[in-house]
Amino acid sequence: MAAPLHSNPLRRAEALWRAGVERLAEDCVPEAVAIFRECTAAYPAFAPAHNDLGVLMEALGNPVQALACYRAALAADPCHRQARHNLASLSIEIDLERALHRGHLNWLPA
User: Fold this and answer.
1) Tens digits of per-residue pLDDT, 21-74?
2) Considering its fold, how many domains does the chain have in total?
3) 103 in the Ramachandran plot: left (φ > 0), alpha (ψ -120 to 50) or beta?
């Protein structure tokens, strides 16, 4: 007999995460953010929710929060390839923006 959904933390985390993904697919971004936040707070070891929250934070123009989410995903699962890729890509983007702002890359074509 299968355990009830509420008694299995991984199943509950996956169910919350799926609900967030569904809200996102319906273009309900604020609700998806709220669900991913709930999932990461209740199940900090569930890396997919941290990563997806990071993607939303990045898309919403919150790179600092996105970096924190990607790092939390990797803390939960060091082998989470998408979080590793997202963290690296955003870090490079931030470094390039800082260099451009400081005039260190003024040799690049406009």
Assistant:
1) 999 999 999 999 999 999 999 999 999 999 999 999 999 999 999 999 999 999
2) 1
3) left
